[in-house]
Design a protein that fits this description.
about 55 residues, mainly alpha, about 0% strand
């Protein structure tokens, strides 16, 4: 699926925002280590989507 640059950035931001929302929701129950892991995964997924669409 080809997306233009704006759509790619939007997709990455949406993926990051969703990851961040999940991260904050789970933070109290799981703790800092898991929060950092999920945040990192969200960033990696967002970045990979951005790269894939170029």
């Amino acid at each position: 699926m080809k997306l233009n640059f704006v759509q790619a950035i939007t997709s990455a931001l949406v993926a990051f925002a969703a990851g961040a929302a999940i991260t904050f929701a789970l933070h109290g129950a799981i703790g800092r280590g898991a929060m950092e892991t999920i945040a990192t995964l969200a960033i990696v997924i967002g970045a990979s989507r951005l790269v894939d669409t170029k």
